[in-house]
Amino acid sequence: MRYRQLAALLVATVFFASPGRASAQDMVRSDGRWLDDRAQPYKLESLHGAPTILTMAYGACRRVCSTSLRVMQSVQALADERHLRMNFVVVGIDPHEDTPADWAAFRIERKLNRPNWQFLSGDEASTRQLAQQLGVRYWRYGEHTMHDFKIVLLSPEGRVVRSIDTYDQSPASLLP
After folding, report:
1. Residues 6+ apart with CB under 8 A from 83
2. Residue 60's closest CA among 117, 112, 103?
3. Residue 60 DSSP code
4. DSSP helix/strand/coil, 10
5. Most CB within 10 Å of its CB: which of 14, 34, 108, 168?
6. Other beta carbons less than 10 A from residue 87's beta carbon
């Protein structure tokens, strides 16, 4: 009898702890501690009310993150054509390397000056929690931080609606 209860508990734990299930149905929790690229506190709740395109990036990355930014810029252009109001958020995946000052320089270098774009830095716990919620895996490889390619569309309420996780998926699929 105990064995069955333990087995049932284990199955339930694995099922309900699955990152894919949680990210598809739960709201992205916003209890993390974030700073924007001006080193000001930022609450993810301020994004509510409009769809949000969000990715996690490593500012020093020149391949995956550059592609993520280009895809996000394509979505911005498509949203502009359709007169859609949307937020665009890039969250640093390495709290030690992706500081507010780094993101401010990145924003200037990439000419991403629109007010609907946010570049955020968090502490390690907040970053890890958000990555888990979104299903983004990351790891250190030598001096670099490696991570999955993933861009998500959040509903105006902060729920993950859909995502793209390969380079050949259409940016238009992220429009609400």
Report:
1. none
2. 103
3. T
4. helix
5. 34
6. 19
